[in-house]
């Protein structure tokens, strides 16, 4: 099975169903072997990079704006996040992070089925940004049928898609 490493808190947002799209600047179907990943289950891996408080605060600000627009229960077209689910997790992360980080790092969190990449403009009617890495928001990769692991599985991640071996240990 292939795995995809995602920074926190976005990896956890995928696992709770708040982030149904992963944004990348490349279309995996155009890469060698990429077509074989379409509609296949992949592991969602949390990167080793620590959570940045300023990124969480930025997401919370964007979600507050979405709520003012009335998007509390829906997928916000500005962030592509499900507002209520995302806000609940991010509020906990922001409150706890300066004292004790609460999101797991450098581990597999669960699996999801990878759908056909689409341009965000086609899905949302305009540009979308769930982070400050604006160059990454070229392709929206749908993630569906998310299934969390019973417990995080430690593993060293890599860039792009990489081979997941069940129970591999972080080296």
UniProtKB/TrEMBL annotation:
SUPFAM superfamilies with a match to the protein in the record: PUA domain-like (SSF88697)
What Gene3D superfamilies does the record point to? Hypothetical protein
Superkingdom, taxonomy of origin:
Bacteria
Report what the protein is called: ASCH domain-containing protein
Organism field: Methyloceanibacter caenitepidi
